[in-house]
Amino acid sequence: MNNTLRDGLRVMDYLAYADRPMSLTEIAAALELGKSKTHRLLQTLIQANYAFQSESSKYIASIKLWKLGSAMLRHATLRSMAEAEMQSLMEQTGESVHLSVLEEMEIVYLHKIDSDNPVRAYSQIGGRMPAFQVATGKAMLAFKSDSELRELYKASMAKNFAPQKSEEQFLDEMREIRQSRVAINRGEFRADVHGVAAPIFDRMGNVVAAIGVSGSAQHFGADRLDFFAQEVKRSAGFIAEKLFGQPRNSPWP
């Protein structure tokens, strides 16, 4: 591990467990780091909003660390709540199942259950994919505002993450997904891999994740898409009910 990164994480960890604001001298002594290096690390943490200085010039971990821990706990809960339903969805459809969350222009796979015929080297737990090019990503992106989507589309051009369509075509697709609550990937990341996904909403109507099926393009003909769409929407609603207690027969906001 990079030594500077390691030491920065040590400082962050120390502040997170401190029961009071800590001085530069105390932090440097506790971690056996020089004052100059400790000061540089603290300034980097402050710039990244992981720490701040009190009026007495002592250092405190910021609320961002708490949010980070809460997010990880939420993801662990989401995965555990979704696992049985993911297994059921795989058995119903015969396709691999993914549970994803959105991080800016990428999705992160929280969990996956492979079918008997998985697409080799397609995805892995903890792996990332361009959100614009996979079904679970599009299912979550669609519920952002048009202005946010335009900004993300432009930003994605620099990273080669943009969808293989014009900005207006992309926005039209997002509106359709918003209406149907189903996203379809027709080989946009890999020509031989297709997928169908649905968003998972909390009680306030915010998208927290997406669940989808994916597999060989040969399995995703027009005659199967409606079936896959119904199944992923059913699974998304079931997981949301387990997480948030929303009655299954009530429409989500």
In short:
The protein has helices spanning 3-17, 24-31, 35-47, 63-93, 135-141, 146-159, 167-180, 222-244, and strands spanning 51-53, 59-61, 96-103, 106-113, 128-130, 183-186, 193-201, 207-216.
List the helices and strands and how they pair.
Blueprint: H1 3-17, H2 24-31, H3 35-47, E1 51-53, E2 59-61, H4 63-93, E3 96-103, E4 106-113, E5 128-130, H5 135-141, H6 146-159, H7 167-180, E6 183-186, E7 193-201, E8 207-216, H8 222-244
Antiparallel strand pairs: 1-2, 3-4, 3-8, 4-5, 6-7, 7-8
Helix pairs in contact: 1-3, 2-3, 4-8
> In the residues, how many domains can be counted?
2
Superfamily at the CATH H level of the largest domain? GAF domain
CATH class of the largest domain: Alpha Beta
Helix content: 40-55%
Based on DSSP secondary structure assignment, what is the total number of beta strands?
Answer: 8
- Class from secondary-structure proportions: alpha+beta
- Record the strand order, biggest sheet: 5-4-3-8-7-6
Output the helix-strand order. HHHEEHEEEHHHEEEH
Q: Please count the helical segments.
A: 8
CATH topology of the largest domain: Beta-Lactamase
Spatial shape: elongated
Q: Tell me the fraction of residues in β-strands, as a range.
A: 15-25%
Assembly type:
single chain
First-residue to last-residue Cα separation: 45 Å
Mean of residue pLDDT? 85
Unreliable parts: none
Radius of gyration: 22 Å
Q: Summarize the main sheet.
A: 6 strands, antiparallel
What is the second-level CATH architecture of the largest domain?
A: 2-Layer Sandwich
